[in-house]
Each structure stands twice: as C-alpha cells, then as structure tokens.
C-alpha cells in the first residue's frame, strides 16, 4: 500500500470528537458517515437534548403551533456516535489532544470539530436577571418557560431589543393578544441588520400592529417586588413602565470561553478558520486537526474583501458543517472551500422578511422593486459600486435574481429594464446604518475584519 493510501485510510479511521450537539454538529456527523468515516465519533453537548431546531422557538412555539419538545432535528441517517449530553466542554489540551469536560472527564481525539454556536446575551445585572418574569430566548427550555409565562396572560410584556429575535417575540405576543412594549436603543427596529431606511418601515409596521415601540431608549434597571417578581422597568429617559414579563433580546455571545488558554484564535468574535474550516492558532498558523463550523466560526469570503464573516444563519450552519466534515477526512487537493452566500429570513407581524448577501456592508441603497410605503419591496445594497446584498419585505421571489447579481459582482446601482420595479425612486441613498463602533441589536452577519487572531501585539523599540 502506498503512503498516500495509508494516509487516506487513517483519515477515515481514528477518533473524531464534535463539541457542540447542534444543527452544525449533527449535519457534520451525518456527512462524516456518508463520506465513509468508520472510526469512533463522540458528540458532546451542554444541554441534555440531542440536536433540535432553534428558529421555531421564537416563531411557531410561542404561537402554540409547535411544542418546543417536538423541535428535534430530523435525522438523515444513523451516525453510530457516543453521546455525551448535559455536560459542557471546559477546556482543550492541544498537546495531549484531549477535550476536558465540566465533570472532569477528558475525551481524546485525533480530529476535533467545534460547533458550539452561541448563547443569548443575558441581562447586564445578574440580580435583576434572576427576577421571576425575566427571560432570554435561545434554548428549548427557555422557550418552554416563556410560553408557560405568556399563557398566564401577563398585563404587559417588555421586549428589550428590536433585532430579529426581539421583533419576532413581540410579533408572537401581539398575535396572542398581549400588550407589548419594545425598547430599542437604536433609532428603529432591525437597524443593525438592515439599516435605518428599512428600519423605518419596520417601525411603522410594529406601531400599526399595536406595539408600544420606544426607540432611542435603553432600559436602565428592572425592578422586582418583595417576592422577587418583575414589576416595572426604568428607562433612560427617566420614565418607568409596568411589566410582568421582560424578554431580553440583546444579541448572542459566541461560545468560545472554554477555549481560553488553548492557543487557538478564539474570542468574543468567534473562532477564526480558513475557507476550508480549519482553525487558526493565535499566531495565524492554520491547524490541520481542528475545524469549526456554524455560528461560532468566522471565515474569509472573497465576495466581501476577504473579511472574516460570522454568520448566524441556519443554512450557513448546514453548508459549513458539510464542508468541514468533507475536509476532515480528505487529502489536501480534494478539500473544498466554504463560500456560502449569507441568507436570512424572518416572519413577523404578518410579513416575510428575507435577505441575501451582507446588507451591513452596504454604503448605498436603492428600492428596486415595489415601494417602501406599501411595505412590499426589494431593497438592493451597493458597496464600492457593486451589488453586495438585497433585502425583501414580502418579495422573496426576486431574491434568487439578486443572489446571482451578488455572485457576479454586478455593478451598482442596478439597471434592469425587464424587471417590474414600480418604485418611488431609483436614486441611491445612504442605507443609514448606525455607527459600527456602537453596539446594536440583532445583526445576523458580522464582518469581523481581516485578522484571524484575537491577540494584540505591542512592538517595543530596542535600545542599543
């Protein structure tokens, strides 16, 4: 047997450990088996459940159309894995090739895939976060607890943050007939993801649907009663509102804490990896035995100036997991890049919102189909004279066309004589994104710069 054949056999054998019993983790495991991996496979997850679908938790589950416990992901095939559930990974020893668990067990690996995803950003004051009636929404258990509380018909629900998840929660509450106040520190809902021009449309939509929308306002404190139950919230304008339920929707935190001290390029922005999903170390050297996929990963994309992108998208998690699994058991020449074009969708207040590309990179915007006034349109974003993204309100049928334009680096502003436009204006305008140095709620695509490393180096001149 040749040396190359020996390597091929070794790649399809050995021990692969997947940290993160998530959508990405499951799809990677299934792909490994489909591609002929016959070695041992261990799945580690901090929740006690096998992988389940998260998007329905802020949509169908809150509307009573699906039970959180029924959101288990369908299996494409059996994966013949050892499941280590309900115990989090706590550390990584790259020298010994071992994952350390919170229960002090260690799990050895030959190759490691990290799919730990994100967790909901908690309320900033722990004592207030512990009040009865204060929730985040990320896990199956979160959804069950929140649904149970909403079923008690609270007098008012406060949603803190008007990104996609916060807006979906507000929509579900209104559909349940509940009074809802949304506090958003930005100038409009969805402003971090789609900009202020489109945010103004979301603003009108929410107000028309009965939401008490308070933009340019922060919640400064949550107050409880003597029994530890939420009773009111204090706002930055000096006012206070009564509320029995508060849903904190301040974005996500990437689950990289357990990698501290591991020597990997992992930090608050995610885990840096190359286009083949191989993880970088803190010196920018790519590893060959550690891979990352899903929400926790960030990788360069040629369509976006090779900046590192972190994508909180269902489709991206699946596609990246499949690429990572393929590359883990293939020789170098057979490896494939992960160049998935970002896509996102949301259903709220009776409107289907979809985007393709990276809207937040846009420096100009035109309404190419429909009109903002009708709340049915496609907005196209330009960046340095080319089409970079498109977002639609009840206009998803057009997005396939704009996906092709983005992939072809078509010029901006677009000029399509055969497309039904019915627009109020074709003049490019500033999409009105907030200052990127200020935090916003809910961007689902994050451009994280060119450097794969979280390390900051200070050069000190020597003196002879």
TrEMBL record:
Residue ranges of domain Reductase C-terminal in the record: 344-415
A GO term for molecular function: oxidoreductase activity, acting on NAD(P)H
CC per GO annotation: cytoplasm
Keywords of this entry: FAD, Flavoprotein, Oxidoreductase
Keyword Oxidoreductase: yes
InterPro entries, per database record: FAD-oxidoreductase/Apoptosis, FAD/NAD-bd_sf, FAD/NAD-binding_dom, FAD/NAD-linked_Rdtase_dimer_sf, Reductase_C
Entry cofactors: FAD
Residue intervals of the FAD/NAD(P)-binding domain: 15-321
Name assigned to this protein: Ferredoxin reductase
Organism: Kitasatospora aureofaciens (Streptomyces aureofaciens)
